[in-house]
Amino acid sequence: VQLQASGGGLVQAGDSLRLSCAVSGRTYVVGWFRQAPGKEREFLARIIWSDFTTYYSNSVEGRFTISRDNTKNLVYLQMNSLKVEDTALYYCAARTHMSSSYAYWGQGTQVTVSS
Predict the structure, then answer these.
(1) Shortest CA distance to 11 belongs to which of 102, 88, 95, 96?
(2) Tens-place pLDDT, residues 85-103
(3) What is the mean pLDDT of residues 41-56?
(4) In angstroms, what CA-CA distances link 106 with 1, 30, 32, 61?
(5) Distance CA 61, CA 76 (A)
């Protein structure tokens, strides 16, 4: 399984940004995470590959939306109403089975939100 995240950039508070994760190989779940400097990695959202079921952390539910393009093997993270505290390195990751951990990670894409 290989993943490649893209779409990060520098935006202003209140703006929107969509991240993409290109996925190759068979996966069960793809998730998005982020890590800000000096902080632990934080889970944001995940989508089950087979049935598109989604789940969000409380910190982003209602602002971020995870989705999947079945024709392109892409997983998106639509981020709206961005805040300065959303600044972080964003990663996508995959689990290959229901009980496995996130063993496969993309390289990360930087999102910087200015005030």
Answers:
(1) 88
(2) 999 999 999 999 887 899 9
(3) 96
(4) 10, 11, 10, 22
(5) 15
